[in-house]
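pipeline: protein-struct stage 2 | run 1193 | Transposase
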Amino acid sequence: MKESKSQYVKRTQKDYTLSFKLEVVGQIERGELSLSEARLKYGIQGHNTIRVWLQKYGNFDWENQCPNNMTKSKTQTILELEQKIKLLEKQNATLEHRAEQSDRKAAIFDMMIDMAEQEYNISVRKKLLTRVVDHYSEKEEMSISSTCKLLGYDRQVYYRSKKSFRQKRLRASKVINLVQGVRQIMPRIGTRKLYFLLQEQLNRLGVGRDKLFSILAANHMLINPEKNYKTTTNSHHRFRKYKNLIELLDINRPEQVWVSDITYIGGRGNYYLSLITDAYSKKIMGYNLSTSLATAGSLKALNMANRNRIYKEKELIHHSDRGIQYCSNEYQKRLRQMKITPSMTESYDPYANAIAERVNGILKQEFLLEKYKVDLKTMKILVKQAIEIYNTQRPHYSCNMKTPQEMHLQQEIKIKKYKKQNPAVEESLQLD
């Protein structure tokens, strides 16, 4: 008990991001979780914390809901009692038959357990010993000693198993608290990256990568990837289209290639997020959120990216699809002023600009930006928080588990590459 108290850390409203609050509110309003279930699952402190979020961010009128504990009428009570009596009569009619079959069923179930243990190499009786003894002794009002004797187990075996079970459960609880702390910031970050971020704490608990997967799976906390793609590209226009300069290029330093794209976000897909990402470090250099696909939004993202450059003396390629925003005279003029060379995809396949598409997916799926039905001002806050966390806290496999910010501040580490198949496929394998 003393150990658990020492682990307690008081949290405030500032410890929960707006993205996390909206996700919890959404799950409650969709009926996926109750208030108590949400508090237990995410480790949210305070009995009124979630109620405050519901009143502030929810779509329902939580303040004026009618209570559901109104007194029942006598007629309702009588009907319920009559239904219970009928049910009891039906159950009583089958008791004698069930009693006759109980011994046979017990023998069959015992045989099934033996076969399962032999075929699947799982010690069912050993793993469930303590829970079976506890449940049966409580149900039948028998002592632990009598129940162990009935099942043919030594009482000391039960107590050793009980101690081991408590230790494992305490360890799992500590692991879940660590994971919840990370997912309050990055709600859908995957288990492998969680293991990398928490490796030092997990090693102290004696938890490896496989055990982390098992604990999260047992608590329904594994993340299932979502796949969807909506095109925002209009390449049927009069403007000049440029050649693909990066198809066979060896990307080996930051600010060698920028990749650009526009994606839908928001629950109704009514906002457009323009992004410019460094192909080497995966850092988002510039972004802009707007309510239209006009070139102005892409230009604002480009101007922000240019302000954030730190290797301005090096040659830089700007790679994008053949959308009208990037081919427009205004956008190309700005690239020339910045001395940036344009490059464009030569196909309509989204994987031809795979790095940009992957970054879109991370922001929309891991940070849930595509789900929230909020106003423009709130969405800008969500986007700013997500990109700041993405750049400074989320590791990438291709960057040797460095964050984009860490990767961008050096030029020595080579990005991980996989067996070359074709340029588009190879690029898509250098993303995470």
